[in-house]
Design goal:
By secondary structure, this protein is of the alpha+beta class. It has helices at about 5-20, 25-40, 50-60, 85-105, 120-130, 185-195, 230-240, 280-295, 310-325, 330-345, and strands spanning about 1-5, 70-75, 75-80, 105-115, 135-140, 145, 155, 160-165, 170-175, 200-205, 210, 220, 265-275, 325-330.
Length: about 350
């Protein structure tokens, strides 16, 4: 693994987006969200996605200069029309709108349609958390990789859910997971590195047997977390992020892995809940920290060296990668260097 500093990574991503037609300000905003994903260890949603995003921009599948519109639909609700722009721009606008509304009303729900893949879910749940609010984010995934429970037709997405809880000056408690055992981006990362997947991630749709070769992922489907419960959660989040916003779900979802030219109409939502409407934020943070420490210090099973809570490793990786740089596998660097040559931009600097 070579490493790149977050600053160099962001500058490279922005250069590539500007070459693909994004205005400089938008390119820098998207780059910031992607670098944050890499810094926290959501490696399948950072610079790893850059070649795919550039392909879709060049093919017209994403609008490089969107007119993103926010329509307030009530005192505590709004709907964002992304005009088929980069999902990072759309959801940043949506999250900031939710925070603004929640300052007035205590709680706000903002939906988005005509959006696109926006990267790591926790990046958006963190926007309310930094503002002293609880943030809840979900999206209809940008491809279907899971069938309804008992079926074989991939009609459900990995539909992620992220919940961020503020802890004052400390890093927020952050839960971020796909409704499948792993995200599809993780599968593609294994393929890129030539690694075999563990059993329990995917099954062959023809035989029902475990599928461990990531290069054959199109022959199978991802398994849900918790069996039928994960499939049910994916379905419900799809209704909330997709149907409620007039966005695509099920057969209407455009597989952005296979189709670079079609508009995706991705649906997402963000909820912001102002902690101080219920309790003094200082009291809340202290009580939450005490409870978290009780959990960390509780008795462990034999062979377990520590109890890991949501957000612990995320915060650790963030500190380490801000200091030492973001690790990048050689096959990804080859792709990024090729992208730089084709775009006519300076390649990514790395240590």
């Amino acid at each position: 693994m070579r490493r790149a500093s977050p600053a160099d990574l962001g500058a490279f991503i922005a250069r590539a987006f500007v070459a693909a037609g994004l205005p400089a300000q938008d390119a820098e905003a998207v780059a910031a969200r992607m670098v944050e994903a890499d810094v926290i260890g959501a490696d399948a949603h950072g610079v790893f996605r850059l070649p795919q995003y550039i392909r879709r921009l060049k093919a017209g599948g994403v609008n490089a200069r969107p007119d993103i519109q926010v329509r307030k639909t009530g005192p505590a609700t709004a709907l964002v029309d992304g005009d088929n722009g980069m999902g990072h721009l759309v959801m940043t606008r949506a999250a900031r709108t939710a925070v603004e509304l929640a300052r007035e009303t205590g709680v706000a729900w903002v939906g988005a349609r005509r959006s696109n893949h926006a990267g790591a879910a926790s990046v958006y749940a963190e926007i309310p958390a930094v503002a002293g609010m609880i943030g809840i984010y979900s999206a209809v995934a940008s491809a279907n990789h899971m069938p309804p429970w008992g079926g074989i037709a991939s009609l459900l997405g990995t539909n992620p859910l992220a919940i961020g809880v503020p802890l004052g000056d400390d890093a927020p408690v952050m839960l971020d997971f796909a409704t499948t055992v792993v995200s599809y981006g993780t599968v593609k990362g294994y393929e890129l590195r030539g690694q075999k997947m563990p059993e329990g991630w995917m099954v062959d749709k023809a035989t029902g047997q475990p599928l461990t070769d990531p290069a054959r992922s199109n022959d199978g489907f991802l398994l849900p977390i918790g069996g039928y419960k994960g499939a049910g959660l994916s379905l419900m989040l799809g209704l909330l992020a997709g149907v409620l916003n007039g966005a695509g779900v099920g057969k209407d979802v455009v597989d952005f892995n296979a189709d670079d030219a079609s508009a995706a109409n991705t649906g997402q939502f963000i909820l912001a809940l102002d902690v101080k409407r219920f309790i003094d934020p200082v009291v809340f943070a202290a009580a939450a920290r005490r409870h978290l420490e009780e959990l960390r210090e509780s008795e462990r099973l034999p062979g377990v060296d520590r109890i890991r809570l949501p957000g612990d490793d995320r915060a650790t990786r963030r500190r380490e990668r801000l200091r030492a740089g973001v690790p990048l596998p050689d096959p990804l660097l080859v792709k990024l260097d090729q992208l730089a040559r084709e775009a006519g931009v300076e390649k990514l600097a790395r240590a």
